[in-house]
Sequence to fold (89 residues):
Amino acid sequence: MNSATLHLRRWKIAIVLTTLVAFIYFGFILLIAYHKEIMGRLITPGLSVGILLGALVIVLSWLITWGYVRWANTTYDATLEAIRREGTR
Fold:
């Protein structure tokens, strides 16, 4: 793999993950705006669907970020280092 291919792969992954996070976030905001009755429905006393989904948005964002950082630290960095070593030969 060369550096241009690696760069393109990193951008594709970044765009997909950014789109995923935006979809999750804006989906949550649209539910708040247009389906208040669903978001206000109680699951248990003190816990509504809205609170649960809000916490889920945060947790999913953390997990997506963790997944990207893991990929970057293992695959991306290792491949970039191999490309650099080949270039110095």
